[in-house]
Amino acid sequence: MKLSSIPEDEPLFKIIKSRIINTSKIKDKEERKYWNELKRINAIPDLYISREELDYKLNEYLKNGGNNQWKKN
Q1: 18 and 39 Cβ atoms separated by less than 8 Å
Q2: Phi, psi (5° rounding) for residue 40?
Q3: In terms of Cα–Cα distance, which of 1, 31, 3 is closest to 16?
Q4: Which residues lie closer than 8 Å to 7 by C-beta, 6 or more apart?
Q5: Distance (Å, rounded) from C-alpha 73 to C-alpha 65?
Q6: What per-residue confidence (pLDDT) applies to 39?
Q7: Stretch 5-13: mean pLDDT, rounded?
Q8: pTM of the entire predicted model
Q9: Which of 19, 24, 39, 73 has its CA 20 to 30 A from that of 46?
């Protein structure tokens, strides 16, 4: 899907644009600030956990009787 095929008044347009826009090329300080904020809000979270970390956390969880909350080290 091309960004140009989405109407500019659709919320999805700004979400996608905020993820792909190169804010370092925007000269206007306020506009750059606006797009950086949208980029932060609409970022896809990094949810990757390595297999080793997952195994460790599962073992700790089970050792504690399944009552321990998951905490990132």
Answers
A1: yes
A2: -65, -45
A3: 3
A4: 13
A5: 19
A6: 93
A7: 90
A8: 0.56
A9: 24
Q: 16-58: per-residue pLDDT in tens?
A: 999 999 999 999 999 999 999 999 999 888 788 889 988 998 8
SS3 readout for the chain: CCHHHCCCCCHHHHHHHHHHCCHHHCCCHHHHHHHHHHHHHCCCCCCCCCHHHHHHHHHHHHHCCCCCCCCCC
> Per the structure block, which two tokens stand in for 35?
């797009």
Q: Which among 41, 52, 1, 45 is positioned nearest to 18, based on CA atoms?
A: 41
Listed in sequence order, the residues at least 6 apart from 21 whose beta carbon sits closer than 8 Å to its beta carbon are 35, 39
**Residue 45: which of 72, 25, 26 has the closest Cα?**
72
| Residue in the structure block whose two tokens are 């095929």 | 5
